[in-house]
Structure to design on (518 residues):
């Protein structure tokens, strides 16, 4: 990039206008190919005269290009076309790149001019943003980003939208603190809506689903991180407008893709005070919308507000009353359970967790882990609920087999934990030594069947490698008996063991190598 610019923004706009009027798409495309292939091999810039001379090589032939930026129509080339050719186009692109302007805008000059015009119009609207409604903001954002086209790579589209919105920060906008928060919130909501709409039009693949869930997660975290009271008089106005926007999106979202419901509940949990009048008026707004729409997301939103009113039973009955409730994703229940956790309403949470167990049957481990985490919270505060927890986990077998096993270990319930290891055909070698150490210390007698069964298993395999494994286990078994201070039981067992397998010479040899036999 030249240290002394030969182009400013106004001159750049005039250059784009000239290219748009003079060149066709084929010539510009060829010129862009020459530019990308670095076929502009030399360039001399006379800054004061605003003249450019360059050499463009094509298949060994050198074309001399002369450009007068004060009189663009006088630009020339030594090729047969002489002017407005692909060589001049390539030179203009190389010049743009060196001066810090995007060469791609020359190739798409007409679109670039429309974009510049739109941005100029948008800049004039920036001062009006504080006086606009939320709907006005979204219309502004549609216009401001119209030139950005969705692509198969949805995350790239997200980054383009974010980059476009980042440009707004270059111009001071007279926002209050409240409006500053809400305007950023609605930028994020705008991007989420764009991706949700794109998925609805093009169908959902793994990658598109991943993008929208990632966006939803980010928005959820952002709402939690920015939680603080906004007490100026404009907050209630923006709250009303934002809730209306979210209800409109909830009315059209799939009952299995509750992204805007999730945003609504997090927004109300972290940014809306628990005031009876606010909740009551919002419930009325939901009821009016539901009279004309059977959206499950709206139904769930109303149920959540009933819970915030302290009416847990009505919240549950509202959810159950909807025709698609039994097909609800487990993500639906998180806001309800979180609210009960924050309110420390442990008795009510037990009731909800018991009712919800069937929804987690056959679900992914990640979802079931979330469900179990709520049970752990409840039991820590309400120990008498542990029986309910075990009953729920038992109902979800085999999905919860791993979880039950881990819970037994966490709670140091060694007997059922060892029984699960034996039932699964595991042996002590399945675990690291430190896994069994606490059991050996606290309840060594429980390890006896585990070790005895494993020894018998390795002996039955009848090969030297497994005999070595059996000997290693026998040495650990001897240690357990000593830990129990019952060496006589070990001697009695080992005497019988040696007698039973006296004909297995390889085993006898391994016992001697292990110093169990002399």
């Amino acid at each position: 990039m030249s240290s002394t610019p030969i182009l400013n923004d106004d001159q750049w706009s005039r250059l784009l206008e000239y290219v748009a009027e003079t060149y066709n798409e084929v010539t510009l495309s060829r010129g862009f190919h020459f530019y990308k292939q670095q076929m502009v091999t030399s360039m001399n810039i006379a800054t004061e005269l605003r003249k450019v001379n360059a050499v463009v090589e094509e298949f060994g032939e050198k074309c001399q290009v002369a450009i007068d930026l004060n009189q663009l129509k006088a630009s020339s080339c030594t090729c047969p076309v002489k002017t407005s050719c692909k060589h001049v186009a390539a030179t203009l692109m190389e010049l743009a790149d060196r001066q810090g302007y995007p060469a791609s805008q020359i190739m798409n000059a007409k679109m670039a001019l429309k974009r510049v015009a739109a941005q100029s119009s948008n800049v004039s609207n920036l001062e009006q943003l504080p006086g606009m409604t939320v709907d006005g903001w979204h219309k502004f954002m549609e216009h401001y980003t119209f030139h950005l086209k969705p692509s198969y790579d949805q995350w790239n589209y997200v980054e383009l939208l974010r980059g476009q919105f980042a440009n707004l920060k270059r111009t001071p906008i007279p926002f209050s603190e409240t409006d500053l928060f809400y305007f950023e919130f609605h930028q994020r909501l705008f991007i989420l809506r764009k991706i949700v709409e794109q998925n609805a039009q093009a169908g959902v693949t793994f990658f598109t689903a991943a993008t929208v869930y990632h966006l939803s997660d980010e928005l959820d975290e952002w709402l939690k991180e920015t939680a603080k009271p906004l007490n100026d008089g404009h907050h209630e106005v923006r709250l009303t407008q934002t809730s209306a926007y979210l209800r409109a999106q909830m009315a059209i979202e799939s009952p299995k893709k509750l992204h805007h419901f999730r945003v609504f509940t997090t927004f109300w949990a972290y940014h809306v005070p628990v005031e009876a009048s606010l909740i009551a008026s919002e419930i009325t707004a939901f009821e009016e919308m539901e009279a004309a729409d059977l959206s499950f997301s709206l139904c769930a939103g109303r149920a959540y507000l009933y819970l915030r009113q302290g009416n847990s039973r009505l919240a549950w009955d509202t959810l159950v009353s909807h025709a698609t409730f039994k097909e609800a994703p487990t993500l639906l229940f998180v806001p309800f359970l979180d609210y009960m956790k924050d309110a420390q309403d442990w008795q009510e949470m037990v009731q909800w967790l018991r009712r919800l167990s069937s929804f987690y049957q056959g679900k992914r481990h990640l979802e079931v882990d979330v469900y179990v985490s709520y049970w752990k919270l409840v039991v820590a505060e309400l120990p008498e609920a542990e029986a309910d927890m075990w009953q729920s986990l038992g109902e979800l077998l085999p999905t919860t087999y791993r979880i039950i096993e881990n819970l037994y270990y966490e709670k140091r319930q060694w007997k059922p934990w060892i029984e699960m290891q034996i039932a699964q055909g595991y042996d002590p070698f399945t675990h690291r030594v430190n896994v069994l150490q606490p059991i050996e210390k606290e309840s060594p007698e429980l390890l006896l069947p585990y070790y005895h069964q494993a020894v018998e298993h390795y002996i039955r395999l009848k090969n030297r490698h497994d005999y070595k494994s059996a000997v290693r286990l026998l040495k650990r078994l001897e240690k357990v008996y000593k830990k129990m201070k019952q060496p006589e039981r070990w001697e009695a067992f080992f005497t019988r063991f040696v007698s039973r397998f006296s004909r297995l010479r390889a085993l006898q040899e391994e016992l001697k190598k292990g110093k169990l036999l002399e």
Notes: The mean pLDDT is 89. The beta strands are 40-46, 51-58, 61-68, 76-77. The radius of gyration is 36 Å. Residues 8 and 434 are 70 Å apart (CA to CA).
